Amino acid sequence: MSEISRKRRSSTEVREQIVEQVLSLLWEHPLRDITVKMIMEGTGLSRPSFYIHFNSIPELIEERLGELEQVMIGTTMVWLSSTEDDPQILRTALSGLVEVVVENGATFRAIAEAATLDARLAKTWGGFLAKWDAAVAARIRVGQELGHFPDVDAEWTAFAINRMDAAVLIEAFGKRPQMDPESILESIFQIWKRTLYSSK
């Protein structure tokens, strides 16, 4: 690639290309093995170009997780904001969640694995999960107040089913070949349904 063609790319395009290269590498390598040199060799850009846009690889991963979180909120809000006693609304939300992880499974796997060794990413991953715990616990309490859900501990129930989701979805979609999305969706939906909609 010529220097001229490099200069023609906007800052946004360069940033997006760096992110895309990292996301591609994550399907084949654990996060700890990915270096800035590896990333930039795949973009045809110089190594210093990385640091114009990111301070570090963990920072890039954190930003990506934040973007995915917003997408996931959008797909699950149909259930989180619902007051209906209809488990199919929950299934719709879980379906959207599965779609996000199928497309971005390597990112979730990478940060979950790295969190066991990296204090910064451990805090980021823990905070990400804690937000989902709070949201699901709040939805459970609403369902309980309306008489839809059983009298369970909302916080611990949310914690348990969210950690189940994280483990199952990362195992199913964090590497290629991936498992069948419909089968995984039905499995986690049945667990949620039997936990919260036992009379349905």
Q: How does this model look, in words?
A:
By secondary structure, this protein is mostly helical. It has 2 domains: 3-53, Arc Repressor Mutant, subunit A, CATH 1.10.10; 57-196, Tetracycline Repressor, domain 2 (Orthogonal Bundle). The chain has helices spanning 3-8, 11-26, 36-41, 47-53, 57-80, 87-114, 119-145, 154-173, 181-196. α5 runs parallel beside α7 (119-145) and α6 (87-114) packs across α8. The longest helix has 28 residues, at 87-114.
Tell me the number of structural domains: 2
Q: Provide the helix percentage.
A: over 70%
Rg from C-alpha positions? 20 Å
Beta strands, count? 0
SS summary, helix count: 9
At CATH's second level, what is the architecture of the largest domain?
Orthogonal Bundle
CATH class of the largest domain: Mainly Alpha
What is the CATH third-level topology name of the largest domain?
A: Tetracycline Repressor, domain 2
| Beta-strand content | under 5%
Biggest β-sheet strands, sense, barrel: none
Q: Ends: how far apart?
A: 60 Å
Poorly predicted runs are 1-6
Order of helices and strands: HHHHHHHHH
* Overall mean pLDDT: 94
Global outline = elongated
